[in-house]
Amino acid sequence: MTEVSEMNPTIAVRDGQQLDVDLVDSLVKDHVSGVTGRPELTQFKGGNSNLTYLLKYPERGVVLRRPPFGTKAKSAHSMSREYTIMNKIKPAFAAVPETFFYTDDESILGSEFYLMDKVEGYSIETEIPAAWKFGPAENHQLAMSMFDKLIELHQVDYKAIGLEDFGRPDGYVRRQIEGWTMRFEKSLTDDVESFADVREWLLDKIPEQQNSSAILHGDFRIDNMIVDAENPLHVKAVLDWEISALGDPLMDLANTLAYWVQSDDSAAMKAFAVQPSDADGMPTRKALLEYYAVKTGVDISRFDFYAVYGYFRNAVILQQIYYRFYHGQTSDQRFARFALGVKTLCHHCRTLIAASNL
């Protein structure tokens, strides 16, 4: 395997998102042993909400995570939740970075934040590196190795590792539907339809019984993983745990498949792809759903409901980010087109509802 030269490229810190280098350097040295000198501070370019910075020392890299600037839904940007799950889940689920420090003292940086180790490896974004020379078979194997991590996560005994109090799994599905509906209403802008019919359908179709509870990642995607640069079929770390929870695993599966753009999707859907899931040889959403059912034994007969939820939730996430842009709370031009993404996803929900037998 040919190693890729730029494994996790960073960029100069964006305007309006700067940190005091001397201050964060002092914090790192208080909580991470063996680092010397003044670090180079850069920013990881991925992600649309929480901000991720790299402090590069001669000895190692240290990552700082904090919520976005401006008004935001606190529950959607919980650094405490992310820090807790990564500490508790090892060694039952080894693919998480080592964490060093967390604080909710907002007088330091203006928000809660935490520090963690930088995992060396490669973060796949919109394309699979050409240097790997992957064909359809390797692409398929890559997808399945990552999907197996989701299944592994859902099979962790959360009670045995001290996470029984991490959340309230009972009633999780209803709380999610009601919660995302409320967030959508609160973040609506004049240029986006209310899609009341989609919201009403979801509320009406909530299953009377949910599946056995599991640890849910909440944002399980290819671009939220670090793979071994020399063996990309080995997942070294799963990142971005800020909306992890305990609940129905099909909710997590639906979130993952809602991000899984495939080769026969519309151009509008593909325009918002965040991962190379449509590469030649990648499995379809249907194939992944059936694979999950075989590996876990979970009943997928009502998955239409979960699928609509997954796309609607993605639409709400985009709308919340777009709301901040629309009202001038962020100047990040990446968010200017998110209203179109909201409309595309909600119209897709309508298509799924029309085809559903529920």
Task: Describe the protein's architecture and organization.
The protein is of the alpha+beta class and 358 residues long. The chain has two domains: 10-117, Phosphorylase Kinase, domain 1; 130-355, Aminoglycoside 3'-phosphotransferase, Chain: A, domain 2, CATH 3.90.1200. The protein contains eleven helices and ten strands. The chain has helices at residues 21-31, 79-89, 106-109, 136-154, 172-187, 196-204, 249-259, 267-270, 285-296, 303-326, 338-355, and strands at residues 10-11, 40-44, 51-56, 61-66, 99-103, 113-117, 214-216, 225-227, 235-238, 245-247. The strands form three sheets. Strands 1-2-3-4-6-5 form a six-stranded antiparallel beta sheet, with helices on both faces. A hairpin with a 6-residue loop joins β2 and β3 (51-56). α5 runs parallel beside α10 (303-326).
CATH superfamily of the largest domain: Aminoglycoside phosphotransferase (APH), C-terminal lobe
Give the class-level CATH name of the largest domain: Alpha Beta
Q: What CATH architecture of the largest domain do you see?
A: Alpha-Beta Complex
How is the biggest beta sheet arranged? 6 strands, antiparallel
Short description:
39% of the residues lie in helices and 12% in strands.
